Amino acid sequence: MKKILVLGGAHIDRRGMIETETVAGSSNPGYWMEEAGGGGFNAARNLSRLGFKVKIIAPRGGDANGEIVSAAAREAGVEDAPFTFLDRSTPSYTAILERDGNLVIAIADMDLYKLFTPRRLRVRAVREAIMASDIILCDANLPEDTLRAIGTAARICGKILAAIAISPAKAIRLKAALPDIHMLFMNEAEARALTGANVETVEDWPQHLRALGLRGGVITSGARRVVAFSQHETAILHPPLIEAVKDVTGAGDAMASGYLAAIADGKPITQALAHGAAAAAITVQSTFATAPELSGETLEAMLALVPAAEML
Asked: What is the model's pTM?
């Protein structure tokens, strides 16, 4: 069983769902839901449900929200090893979503992640976790110098390093670490923030990202085409049409999880891209950011509905 170490966000997600047509500047009927979330944490739970041994190290506050995150880790079978700051609050992400599941606006209260400094990587337990892992996954919730230090540690230890861009504003924190990253998962807005480029088609992103030293990655564009690339190959896929979309939160993290799981199992990028699309399709049909029903079996069933990826 492959071991995956996750270094990144694990916090509270609050989502307000608008039940009617959105009216800006007005009160809109809807409801709230709250659950544990975070790019790295979502991926950690997905990967555990797909059969990997997963450990996550992330900052956490000494509050009730921190306990919610811990409980969610236990439920998903993830080994939880947080840096706990008893006098701080656990980070949170609060979003407003339209009734079709698309994001209106969000607020990220993430200052605690600034305390995950490069010095933390020198803690014995963290060094041992890095050495024991087969793959390291980080996300851009962490500070820029920490991400650069993670890249250096992965390179020195000969580990595969994957990363999740999180948002356009945070994606640029990964820029210095790009040459050490084997797979970066992002959307077009995040790719644009990293490269400064405006491209006509999603197929053009790999050349701009390779020019920055990135070895591989996946670029999504909502429900439209998604492209994956390695150092020498590029593949494209049209995701399956999902009519019963409940919530798009976590779809990108699911794409990263499915893709990374397939690569860890030795599959080529065309198959990995299909696995990522299948995991994302399962997730958007769930009201949760990580679908509890995600498993190797449900992923295989969804793959039957995913069009084949094509090499470019």
From this structure: 0.93
